[in-house]
Design brief:
It is built from eleven helices and nine strands. The protein is an alpha/beta fold.
């Protein structure tokens, strides 16, 4: 534990002060002005050390959550002893493997008003939960909200923790306007859900989008959008490391999902035909071109094979997102 804290202090470039901001689980630290019960939920797979660093970092939140839930795909994906030392209110939720299944388990386990889904490598600014509470109190018609990603390693090679922290520091004090703007979907690495809406209408992430659940954030956002507004909060800031480690789907599976999931979501009415076509062609073209000289962190050839398998199944009427579970 002390070794990990020492390494993390080096990331911050300062002493142990971040770990003295609060002690989660102590009612005295909760703001007396808090009017919503807020939960943090993290679904994780194969990134044990990344998860630990993220939870340690999140002790900087100036408004602690009433619940902190993690749902590891496997028991070995979370160092629960260290996490509970850092966060006494932490609860471990069990679920079958698969991001949608894990997110559903987190929603079922939470008794909060708002559940904030963070990826296991998302670094929220210190006031993120303060601003979440303000947003959901000020806008009762908002059912899901997402923030402004200051740096995103997801589409590329990923960002290391030190670089991510530098991006947060470089952004300076939060002077963004207290405003929200409509968006088509929340970004899965950081999205806050009003759970009263989820419970009232029996909403779930679609478990027919298995494993990494490509585009599950789009599908769920459009489902919940039938009952309220989907927005981006200008004062919600953070960095998505986009860590390229174990837990992600192999290239062939991901490539198949890039075709199958889009078509499936389109057929449900949660994506336009033009959007599905543009996205599928973009992925196919990108994987085709980059397979000639693939990046070291991406299995482009595997993705291309998966794309082609998905297109063949589409033509032959056998397209099924769950097929990747047998690949």
């Amino acid at each position: 534990m002390m070794h990990m804290l020492h390494n993390f202090r080096n990331y911050h470039g300062r002493d142990a002060a971040p770990y003295q901001v609060m002690t989660w689980g102590d009612p005295a630290v909760a703001s007396t002005a808090a009017r919503l019960k807020i939960a943090v939920g993290i679904a994780t797979a194969g990134r044990r050390e990344v998860l630990t660093d993220t939870v340690l970092f999140m002790r900087n939140q100036t408004r602690p959550p009433e619940e902190f839930l993690i749902c590891p795909a496997r028991a070995e994906d979370a160092d629960v002893d260290i996490l509970r030392q850092a966060c006494p209110v932490l609860e471990v939720v069990s679920s079958p493997v698969g991001l949608c299944r894990q997110r559903n388990a987190l929603m079922a386990a939470s008794k909060a008003d708002v559940l904030v889904f963070f990826d296991d490598d998302f670094l929220p600014d210190d006031d993120f939960l303060v601003e979440i509470e303000k947003l959901f109190l000020a806008h009762p018609d908002v059912v899901i909200a997402t923030g402004c990603v200051l740096a995103d390693g997801g589409p590329g090679a990923g960002i290391d923790m030190g670089t991510g922290l530098e991006a947060l520091r470089g952004a300076g004090p939060n002077r963004a306007p207290d405003a929200v703007s409509p968006v088509y979907n929340a970004y899965g690495c950081n999205m806050a859900v009003r759970l009263d809406t989820v419970r009232r209408y029996g909403l779930l992430f679609d478990e027919r989008l298995p494993l990494y659940s490509w585009l599950e954030d789009v599908d769920f956002s459009r489902e919940i959008a039938r009952h309220g507004r989907v927005v981006k909060g200008a004062r919600l800031r953070g960095v998505h490391l986009g860590t390229k480690k174990a837990g992600r789907s192999p290239g062939r599976r991901l490539g198949y999902s890039q075709i199958a999931n889009r078509v499936y979501i389109m057929r449900k009415g949660n994506m336009s035909p033009s959007g599905a076509l543009r996205g599928g062609l973009w992925n196919l073209g990108s994987n085709l071109i980059k397979s000639l000289r693939p990046e070291p962190w991406a299995d482009r050839r595997g993705r291309l094979i998966g794309n082609l398998a998905g297109l063949w199944d589409l033509v032959t009427g056998r397209l099924d997102p769950t097929k990747i579970e047998k690949m």
